Amino acid sequence: MKIMEQYLGLKKEIYILTFGKVVTCLGAMVWPMMTLILSNKLKMDASQIASLLLIMNIVQIPCMMFAGYMADHYNKKMMIILCDLVSVIGYLSIAILDINMGTVIIFFIAGLFAMMEHPVYDALIADLSESKDRERAYSLTYLGANLGMVLAPMLGGLLFAEHLQLSFFIDAISTLISTIMIILWLKDTSVVSDDSCEKYEEATSMSLWQVLKTRKILLYYLCCFVVIEFIYSQYQFLLPLNLEQLHGSQGALYFGAMTSLNAIVVVMGTPLLTSWFSRVKDINKIEISAILFMISLSMYIFIQGKVPLYFLSMFLFTCGEIFNALGQLPYITKRIPLSHRARMNSLQRMLSAIFIAIMQKGWGILIDHYTIVFIWSLVSLVTIIGLLMIVILKKADKHFYPSL
Prior knowledge:
The protein is mostly helical. It is built from 16 helices and no strands. Helix content is 75%, strand content 0%.
C-alpha cells in the first residue's frame, strides 16, 4: 500500500472524478466489442466496417471541437452531466431493442456524447491540479478508469454471444451512478492558482489556431499524436478481426481475456511505473511507449495461432499504454495556455479520429485482399515511423521549451 501514498495530497475533487471513472468503467464492456458487433452480429466485412467507422468519425469532427470550445468557456461539470445523461438514455434504449443498424446508430450517438466529455474531463483535471502534481492526478484517474475495467471486458466477452443487450443495460446503470456522484459531490471546479505555473500555461485571448501558429512545435506534436493513436487503435480494430479469423467464435472470448489482462496490468502497473519513473521527463515516457508498441504489435507477424504469446504481446502493449498515458497529457498541458486546454484536447482527438478512420478504411480493403501477416507487417512499419517522429519531437522540444 506504500506505493499508493504517492497519490495523497491532491484536491478532493480529483478523488471524486477518479471514483466516478471507476464506476463508469465498471460497465465499459461494450465499446471494445464494437468491431465484433459489426462483424459477428451484422455480418459486415472488414471494408464495410472501416467505411462505417469513417463516416462516424467524420460526424465526430464538429462535435468534438464544439465540446472543447464549450468546455473552455462554460461550466465543465454541467457538460459532463449532460453528456452522461444522453449516453444513459442511448444505452437503455439499445438494451430493450434488437441489434440492427438502427441500434448501431443509437449506439454511436450515445458513444459520441461519451467521447465529447473526455476532453472536458482531461481539462478539468488539469484545472484542479498544479503543474507539479499533474502527472499524479492523471495517473490516478487513469488508474481509476482501468480499475473499473478489470472485469468488464471479460464479462463483455461472456455476454457477447447470447446476452449482448445486458451489457448495454449495465453500461447505462453504471454511467448513471457516476453522474449522480458528480452532481452531488463535485462542488469546486475552479482553476487552481499555481504560483509555480510556467509562462507557457498563462491564459490568453488568442484563438487556438493563433496559439498553434506561435508555437509551431505543437503542430508537429499533433502529427506525432495521431500516428501513436492510430498504432494504439489496432488493439480494437485489427486485433479482434485477426482473432475472429483464426479462432471463430472463440475470438471474442480470447479478446475479452486479453482486454481484461490489459486492465489488470494497468491497475497493477500504473502506480509502480508512476513511482519508478517519476524523474523521467514526459517526452521520454512517450518515446518509451512508442518502443513498446513497436515490439508488441510486431510480434503478431510471428505468433499467429500461438495463444500464450498473445498475452505476452498484450503485457508489453499495456506497459506502452501506461507510459503513453503518463507522458502525453502532462506533456501537452504544460505547453498550452490553460484557457485552451479543452480545445487542444478536442483537436487532438478529432485529428486522431480522422486519421484513424481514413487509415482503417485502407486497412479494411487490404484485409479483404491480403494475408493478416502482411497487414501486421505494415502496422510494424508504421510503429517504426511513429518512433522516429517522437525522436525528432524530443530534440525539437529542447529548443522550443528549454525550461521544461
